[in-house]
């Protein structure tokens, strides 16, 4: 189930002692959102050398990992209230589909578009900044709670509340084989 669709424009983000442009801050989109080859209408990325483009047009994240991140925020003395969808920089907040069950080339067929799994997210310092935790990227690497990027195979529209079908691809490359776990890390359940 697609729980949330989020978009955001690139804007300044304070990362340590520097200000950088980032599109990591997302907000809920209302109603149908256009899906184009380069991503969702109303969404942008600041650094197209590492984010966005045809292979990383849309970023999906499983809601099942949100409990972990709420715990991390609470451990830092921040509110343990539910994080709003998009808090991890994702465009799509999904339920029932974890990274460990996805292969490169699998497609997610929505009523109005089709998206193809291309690669896991590899977090950077901007994730640390938006989470207010200098170890957030490392924690994502250690847990494997990375989410995954999607290419647009069939443009159209998408809306929160829609169901999707996982259509298996060639099933040759499990997504998690492309994600490098940090030494001493554990894999996601």
Describe the structure.
This protein is α+β, with helices and mostly antiparallel strands. The chain has a single domain, classed as Beta Barrel (M1 Pyruvate Kinase, Domain 3), CATH 2.40.33.20. Helices cover 13% and strands 29% of the residues. The chain is built from three helices and 13 strands. The strands form three sheets. An eight-stranded mixed beta sheet has the order 4-1-8-7-11-10-9-13, with no helix packed on it. Strand 2 and strand 3 form a beta hairpin. The protein is globular and about 40 Å long.
List keywords for this structure.
alpha+beta, 3 helices, single chain, 13% helix, disordered C terminus
Query: How much helical structure, as a percent, in the residues?
Result: 10-25%
CATH topology: M1 Pyruvate Kinase, Domain 3
Tell me the distance between the termini.
20 Å
The number of E-state strands comes to 13
Q: Numbering strands along the chain, what is their spatial order in the largest sheet?
A: 4-1-8-7-11-10-9-13
Look at the structure and give the mean pLDDT: 91
> Mind telling me which CATH architecture this is?
Beta Barrel
Q: Describe the sheet with the most strands.
A: 8 strands, mixed
What pattern of helices and strands is seen along the backbone?
EEEEEEEHEEEHHEEE
CATH top level class name: Mainly Beta
How many H/I helical runs? 3
The number of domains: 1
Radius of gyration: 16 Å
Summing up helix and strand content along with how strands pair, one would put the structural category as: alpha+beta
- Give the DSSP E fraction (strand runs of 2 or more residues): 25-35%
Contiguous uncertain segments of 5+ residues: 182-189
Can you tell me the overall shape?
A: globular
């Amino acid at each position: 189930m697609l729980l949330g669709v989020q978009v955001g424009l690139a804007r300044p983000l304070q990362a340590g002692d520097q200000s950088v442009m980032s599109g990591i801050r997302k907000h809920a989109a209302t109603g149908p959102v256009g899906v184009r080859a380069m991503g969702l209408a109303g969404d942008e990325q600041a650094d197209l050398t590492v984010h966005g483009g045809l292979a990383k047009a849309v970023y999906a994240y499983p809601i099942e990992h949100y409990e972990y991140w709420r715990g991390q925020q609470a451990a830092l003395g921040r509110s343990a209230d539910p994080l709003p969808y998009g808090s991890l920089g994702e465009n799509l907040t999904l339920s029932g589909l974890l990274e460990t069950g996805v292969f490169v080339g699998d497609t997610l067929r929505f009523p109005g578009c089709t998206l193809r799994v291309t690669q896991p997210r590899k977090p950077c310092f901007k994730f640390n900044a938006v989470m207010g935790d200098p170890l957030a990227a490392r924690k994502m690497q250690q847990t494997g709670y990375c989410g995954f990027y999607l290419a647009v195979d069939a443009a159209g529209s998408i809306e929160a509340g829609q169901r999707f079908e996982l259509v298996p691809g060639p099933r040759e490359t499990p997504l998690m084989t492309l994600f490098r776990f940090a030494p001493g890390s554990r894999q996601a359940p």
